[in-house]
Every structure is written in structure tokens, then in C-alpha cells.
Amino acid sequence: MRYRSSRTLVFHNDGDEFVACNFLTKAVFECSPDLLDFLGAVADWSDRAAIREQAPGYSEDELDETLAALAEMSALVVEGSNLEMREDAFRRHWKWGVPAALMHFCVQDPEYMSLNEAEDLQRAAFASDGEIELYSLNSGRVDVTALPEVLSGNSLLQLMAKRRTQRKGLAKAVSVPALSEALFAGLGITGTARNAVVTLPLSMTPSGGARNPYEAYIFVKAVDGLAPGIYHYSAFEHSLAKISDASPLLADLVGGQEWADTMPCMIVLVAHMDRTMWKYSDPNAYRVVMIEAGHIGQNIMLSATARGMTACPTAALSHTMIGELIGLRNPAHAPIYALTLGFPDAT
């Protein structure tokens, strides 16, 4: 068996000592100067005999226990392990550097927080800091221009004003036409254009460089005309393909948020960041991909509103579970945003 230090470790000094974080596994641990020296000494694959030379003061049992502990905390990688495969995939596919990777991978699979826990945090923040301003006013400024009223007679803005997130759904199936409209509104491709190099899709929402980084997967519980299961939406063909008979609880896909189980289906937006990486090597493009999820989500929500439905968005996802269910293997492919579709229960 051979070992080497992990290549996805980031270190920082918290004032008293160095702390290490493996951003692929989210493991965080204290890192003494001796451990730093050791990790540097085993940067390449080393067998146990070579590692024994780096730790002459350890008994055989102590060395085995230490190696196992360092592998458990993702400081060391064992040859042939899952972590080695993940690091290799990261090296091959991720092109936006460590800072963007640190953000992207460390916020995945958030711990579940109940509604009561979330409200307790808000009460604590209010008690500590008071209420924070949620909008800014022009009142009191010298040069202020009042704008004309806009809702009267404007059907688009009236529709937008009706949009609300209502996280309790009726036991009522969604129709295929309603689902079709929501998917097309968010991701539909309306044509193509060609630049100096390639042909690009023109879609219903703006996309940086027309790279079209999102795919949609629909987790169906109750859609008239569709069997329960998981479907992939082809925006170019405007079609659905069933990829799995699995029917997980929708709440399990969104970090345990119970309200999701009252909804008949869920659209999960999966970013294929390599499409954007192909053109943009600047890590700032990561931000662009995240912003595009909002463009798509807003169109889906407006389409649902026009049908008297509610589309409830959330970014609190069970990334690993979703990835396994839809077969994601590339670390540059990741669930980013989810929206349930359903009819609001006003009770």
C-alpha cells in the first residue's frame, strides 16, 4: 500500500496554529509544524518502508494508527482509494483554480437545519445586532425624481408582481403542458448563431458567451402522463427522457426541507461548468455560471405563476445524493439550484 499527501489541501493560520482544509472532502484539521513537514516529505507516492524513515520514533502499531488517522482526515491519500480518483478527476476537469474550488466544493451537502433552528438563529441575530435594513430609501436626498406608476395596464409586470414562493402544495398533479412551459421558459433553445469558431445556442435566458452551462433533471412524483421517476430535459430537442425509476423523497434532495414533499415534482438545475471553462479560463466565470441559475429560475417561476402554480426555489441541496441519482462523474458538473412545481395550498 502506498500513500501521498493530498493535493486538494488548503492551509491557513488562525492566529494560534495552522489549520488545513481538504476542499474535496470538507475535512478540517489542525496541522502542526511536524505534520506540515511530514506532508511535504510524502508529496509523491511512498510505501510504508519509505514512510517509516520519515517517522523513526513511532512503533509499528503507532505508525499504522497514524497513517489510518491521516487518511481518515483526508491529509493522506491511499493509492487506489476513492479520494485518489476524485483528486484525479479534479485535476483533469477543473480549470478555475483553488479559490473557486474552495468555495464550490466546501458549500456542498449543507447540514440540515430545521425551521425552528433557523428561526432561533434569526432571534439570536436580532437580539445581538437588531434588524438589518432590507432596502435603501431616497427620502431626505436633495435631487429625487418620482417615477411613474407601472403596474396598471402592464400584463407582464402584473404577472411578475403575482409571483410568490408558497412552500405548501396541494395533492394535485402537474400537467405535462405546464411542465413543458416551465422548462422551455427557463432553458428553451430558440435558435442558433455562429461566431468565428463554433455554433452557439440561443436560449430563453442570457448566458455568458452563449455557453449554455445548464441541464435540467426532473424528479417526478405526480405529473399527469408521466410515470414517477427521474427525467432529463433536452432543451435543444424540447423532450424528456426517463433515466431512472428511482423515486426519492423530494425533501431528501434539498437537505431535508419537509415542505418539498408536498410538491408533485422538482426541477434540478445542473451546471456543466466545463462548457464555460472551455472559453473562459478566468475563475470569475464561476460567478457568471451561478448567476445564470437565477436567470433560469426566474423564468420558470413566472411560467408557473401564469398557470396559477408556485415554483419554490432552493439552493440547499443534497449534492452528493443528487449526483449519484443522475450519474454525475465529472467534478465540473454539479447541482446548483432546484425548484419544485405545484399548486399552492393557501390553508
Q: Which terms would index this structure?
A:
alpha+beta; NADH Oxidase; 347 residues; Outer Surface Protein A, domain 3; Dehydrogenase; six-stranded antiparallel β-sheet; globular; three-stranded antiparallel β-sheet; oxidoreductase activity; 12 helices
Indicate the topology:
Blueprint: E1 2-5, E2 9-13, E3 18-22, E4 27-31, H1 33-41, E5 46-47, H2 48-54, H3 60-72, E6 76-78, H4 82-93, H5 97-106, H6 115-129, H7 155-162, H8 176-187, E7 189-194, E8 199-203, E9 214-220, E10 229-234, E11 239-244, H9 250-253, E12 265-272, H10 273-277, H11 284-306, E13 310-314, H12 319-326, E14 333-342
Helix pairs in contact: 8-11
Account of the 3D structure:
The structure is a single chain. The chain is of the alpha+beta class. The chain has two domains: 2-93, Outer Surface Protein A, domain 3; 155-342, NADH Oxidase. The chain is 36% helix and 22% strand. The protein has twelve helices and 14 strands. The chain has helices at residues 33-41, 48-54, 60-72, 82-93, 97-106, 115-129, 155-162, 176-187, 250-253, 273-277, 284-306, 319-326, and strands at residues 2-5, 9-13, 18-22, 27-31, 46-47, 76-78, 189-194, 199-203, 214-220, 229-234, 239-244, 265-272, 310-314, 333-342. A six-stranded antiparallel β-sheet has the order 11-10-9-12-14-13, with helices on both faces. Strands 5-1-6 form a three-stranded antiparallel β-sheet. Helix 8 runs antiparallel to helix 11 (284-306). The radius of gyration is 25 Å and the shape is globular. It starts with a strand and ends in a 5-residue tail after the last strand.
